[in-house]
Amino acid sequence: xxxxxxxxxxxxxxxxxxxxxxxxxxxxxxxxxxxxxxxxxxxxxxxxxxxxxxxxxxxxxxxxxxxxxxxxxxxxxxxxxxxxxxxxxxxxxxxxxxxxxxxxxxxxxxxxxxxxxxxxxxxxxxxxxxxxxxxxxxxxxxxxxxxxxxxxxxxxxxxxxxxxxxxxxxxxxxxxxxxxxxxxxxxxxxxxxxxxxxxxxxxxxxxxxxxxxxxxxxxxxxxxxxxxxxxxxxxxxxxxxxxxxxxxxxxxxxxxxxxxxxxxxxxxxxxxxxxxxxxxxxxxxxxxxxxxxxxxxxxxxxxxxxxxxxxxxxx
Length: 315
Known about the structure:
α5 links the parallel β9 (156-160) and β10 (180-183). With 315 residues, the protein is α/β, with parallel strands linked by helices. Helix content is 36%, strand content 27%. α3 (106-123) crosses α11 and α8 (247-253) packs across α9 (255-261). The chain has eleven helices and 17 strands.
């Protein structure tokens, strides 16, 4: 059995080589070639914390994957990482454990960043350069890294967070690698952005519909559990294209669930990202459209990145 630590896993990560496999995972999901049972959730309301259990099987594969990921924001005050977890790779023929990836949330963070960049790449205007990142947690850094590595144009980033001092500090650190500034005015930053990525644990809207101008693309990755919400539901109603990673999951607890239950959109108004990747004409067709991707995170991504790590390890 293979057992890898976070440090060993991190040394095997290469965003450009992993991205095509995440892209394919979305396509296979929409084609019905991956068995994805409903996500398991454990919530800890007193700590505003949760645990996700995501699992799935690529039907043509000899293995299946179970991923456990926790989010405990209060850990920051204790000097601990806010996310943790591991990935199990098991035989689809015998049930034997083949690998334990002690990634401590690393693979979830990386594959979420890649997924966000893939959505932005297929849905944003081709001339997009200005990217607003909403959030200052670990996922903010991953979204910046993935967008910088995978988008076709050089990008200028702006970072906004609810804690201004934390935002300044993170922007200063990231400025050693990226063209980035911090913002203390979310509304103004939204109005000037070509791409907006929301990556927070918010439970009420941060982005308001009237702030968003024609031609903007929004990738929302924060609403990965019931009760979470980053976007004004009216923004869903305005959007010309709404992409989701998995329709059943997003209508259960994604951004689209809020707009759907409010009667602002219908199920026919959303298209899975895997479909758009296969048929780009179902995505953005002109520069004036508002496009939006609601990504709740799917086990297909975990399968893809775990496979990449194990392949790189055994080379």
